[in-house]
Amino acid sequence: MRKIATISIIVAIVSALTPCAHAQILTLDQKAMRRDSVIRDFDSRPYFGLYKDNYFIFGPPVGQKITRHNTDVKFQISISQKLTRSTLPFGTYLYLFYTQKVFWNILEKSMPMTDLNFNPGIGLTKPIFQNNRFIGKVTLMLEHESNGRDSIQSRSWNKVSVAAGIFIDPNLMVHGKVWLPIVDDKENKDILEYCGMYQMGVQFISDNRRFFGNLTLVKRRGKPFNYNTILELGYRFSKRDNQYLFLQYYNGYGEGLLAYKQFHSQIRIGICIKPPLFSDY
Questions:
Q1: Cα–Cα distance for residue pair 96/178, rounded to 1 Å
Q2: What burial class does residue 13 get, using C-beta atoms within 10 Å of its C-beta: 0-12 exposed, 13-18 middle, 19+ buried?
Q3: Which residues of the chain have pLDDT under 50?
Q4: Could you tell me the CA-to-CA distances from 186 to 5, 114, 231 in Å, in that order?
Q5: Degrees (nearest 5) of the Cα angle 70, 74, 75?
Q6: Which residues pair with 267 in a beta bridge?
Q7: Which of 16, 53, 55, 220 has the fewest CB atoms below 10 angstroms from its CB?
Q8: Rounded CA gap, 182 and 159, in Å?
Q9: CA separation for the pair 185, 191 (Å, rounded)
Q10: CA distance 201 to 209
Q11: Which element (helix H / strand E) includes 17?
């Protein structure tokens, strides 16, 4: 029953962002996005690949005095491994996921990595089709996230999550994710008040596929307008590669696990490597 309720919530989030979606959805490439072509691609593509955006960015806080203690590097490594050659029941594929997010204070003398967040997971991904055309995918996943520390600096929680990304047209994708939390660490019992209960967002890609913009809102528990906001912009250097000049602005709580209760308004710039087609969030 909880899984059914979770799927209902994510469908509601996507539906709220996509009024009359079934009438408005367009394809990216009429031939490449056909059901048989996409299934063939899922079956034959390399087992190992990118999952979320991989980036290396550096920058200062916004609205504060800039010092060597609050200006840092943030980088993320995110990969996936497909575990099945072809579809499982209900047209799904089994994946292992792993994302690691690191905050690195390179301006301090010893250049410490102040916070490392580990986020492994396993889940089933299902491509979504409308009128025999690929329009997105949905993933049901079991996740763990922790910072690998002990005592009062330990942060840890588990989630059963459902994530979806749906194309509205060739330039616009909406995405959402909702989770059932399992918080078993006494040091972060209140993590939902800072790291949120669900998220939703929209990603724009230019006609020439060189520029992208993404806005993600993470709903914290509490007042109706308690959101963490993530704004991202990217420009691809060349049509032949997937490396982008990348800017990220984070405003809210929960950017890293160790200091999840601290408010951050931070802008950073650097390099991003994106997965093919679109990113997971």
A1: 19
A2: buried
A3: 1-28
A4: 27, 21, 32
A5: 170
A6: 249
A7: 16
A8: 6
A9: 10
A10: 19
A11: helix 2-17
pLDDT in tens, 242-263: 899 999 999 999 999 999 999 9
**Which pTM was predicted?**
0.85
Question: In this predicted structure, what is the pLDDT of residue 21?
Answer: 35
pLDDT digits (tens, 9 = 90+) for 76-99: 999 999 998 878 998 899 999 999
Residues 266 and 249: their CA atoms lie apart, in Å, by 6
Alpha-carbon span 18 to 221, nearest angstrom: 24
Task: Give Cβ neighbours of residue 36 (< 8 Å, ≥ 6 apart).
Answer: none
Total residues found in the chain within this entry: 281
What distance, in Å, lies between the first and last C-alpha atoms of the chain?
A: 25
H or E element in which residue 48 lies: strand 48-50
pLDDT, position 32: 55
What tokens appear for 210 in the block?
A: 């060189």
* 3-class secondary structure, 34: strand
* pLDDT on residue 59: 97
Amino acid at 96: L
Q: How far apart are CA 138 and CA 194, in angstroms?
A: 25
